[in-house]
Specification:
InterPro entries: Epimerase_deHydtase, NAD(P)-bd_dom_sf. The protein is an alpha/beta fold. It has a single domain, classed as NAD(P)-binding Rossmann-like Domain (Rossmann fold). The protein is about 40% helix and about 15% strand. Helix 1 packs across helix 6, helix 5 runs parallel beside helix 7 and helix 5 crosses helix 9. The longest helix is centred in the last third of the chain and has 20 residues. It is globular and about 50 Å long. About 50% of the residues are buried. Bound molecules: nicotinamide-adenine-dinucleotide. Nicotinamide-adenine-dinucleotide (NAD) binds next to helix 1, helix 3 and strand 5. Nicotinamide-adenine-dinucleotide binds next to helix 1, helix 3 and strand 5.
Length: about 300
């Protein structure tokens, strides 16, 4: 593939930082953008940015919701991962953050980068709870301000750009955000202090390894696709949260301690990725097994604790 000028937003984020590294390793000319102050965890974003800096990759500070975006025009491809993720935190005051960083930021970026190929990171949460594998043409049912903000961002992208919309399903792996379940569970096991377990733990998810998500995102930027294509990017094998806890316990030799909490608002019972379209149009399927992906994530937690504790 020829070297393209790619803008990656959310570059100091969990998924975005891996994406930037993969694109740079592939020889692409990348402008990595983030507004670290807007991250749900500033500490995590700073650590990711520092890791990129060590690899010789600079992240340009631009707040997509307020700053001048003219220097982003002229990109061949825009991979838009910046935003305010998280279902639970989007209720109450968090709703305004979700709107600002998921909707306003997307609207402004689309306007600034008209003509570029635009890949939008959306979310499985737009489907609500799944009773069977979700297909991209299914009716959506956003059950949280976060899901609603992602649905709105999708509509803006459909209306304004040559956009491809990727609905990511529960991503995990090294650098996973500290508010996410596997991160909390692994830290709880390593610390011996309990992590909250929301609801009855019977929820299940299409947990998807970050390396697979990055591979799909790069394919979506390269493969010719009709504008407005929506693709589920998820592992079609769903796993229960309790089962995941058991697997983490087996890998670590100690089951993460948990403390029961009420079901969180907007927390759906099941997500389930139907991936026929991604397989047909991208030639992509998730390859990494949960055990393999969890082992990578656990190694990352151990390495970072070693650095922190000297
Ligand atoms: N992690 C998942 O399981 C998952 C699932 C579905 C969808 N997604 C979507 O994928 C994308 C990346 O998720 P993540 O888990 O890596 O999140 P993350 O919070 O780690 O990364 C998002 C980054 O966006 C940046 N950002 C926020 N607002 C900004 C703004 N106004 N201008 C510039 N940068 C801004 C943040 O500083 C942060 O570094 C998000 O859009 C998220 O909604 C993630």
């Amino acid at each position: 593939m020829p070297v393209v000028r790619a803008v990656v937003t959310g570059a100091a984020g969990f998924i975005g930082s891996h994406l930037v590294q993969a694109l740079v390793a592939g020889g692409h000319d990348v402008l990595a953008v983030d507004a670290v102050e807007r991250a749900g965890s500033r500490e995590a974003a700073l650590a990711n940015r520092a890791e990129l800096a060590q690899a010789g990759i600079a992240v340009t500070e631009i707040d997509l919701a307020t700053d001048d975006l003219s220097r982003l025009a002229g990109a061949d491809v825009v991979l838009h991962l910046a935003g305010r993720p998280g279902v639970r935190s989007s209720f109450g005051p968090g709703a305004a953050d979700a709107h600002r960083d998921n909707v306003i930021a997307t609207e402004r970026l689309l306007a600034a980068c008209r003509g570029a190929r635009f890949v939008l990171a959306s979310s499985s949460s737009v489907y609500g709870s799944a009773e069977r594998p979700c297909a991209e043409g299914d009716r959506i049912d956003p059950l949280s301000p976060y899901a609603a903000s992602k649905a709105l961002a999708e509509q803006l992208a459909q209306a304004n750009g040559a956009a491809v919309i990727l609905r990511y399903f529960s991503v995990y792996g090294p650098r996973q955000r500290p508010d996410m379940a596997f991160h909390r569970f692994i830290e709880a096991a390593l610390d011996g202090s309990p992590a909250p377990l929301y609801g009855d733990g019977r929820q299940s998810r299409s947990f998807t390894y970050v390396g697979d998500v990055v591979a799909a995102t790069i394919r979506a930027a390269q493969v010719p696709l009709p504008a407005g294509t929506v693709l589920n990017i998820g592992n079609p094998h769903t796993v229960g949260v309790r089962d995941a806890l058991d697997r983490i316990g087996t890998l670590l030799g100690t089951r993460p301690p948990t403390v029961a909490k009420d079901a969180a608002p907007g927390d759906v019972t099941r997500t389930w990725a139907g991936t026929d379209r991604a397989a047909a149009l991208l030639g992509w399927t998730a390859r990494t097994s949960l055990d393999e992906g969890l082992a990578h994530q656990i190694s990352w937690h151990r390495a970072r604790r070693k650095v922190a504790h000297g």
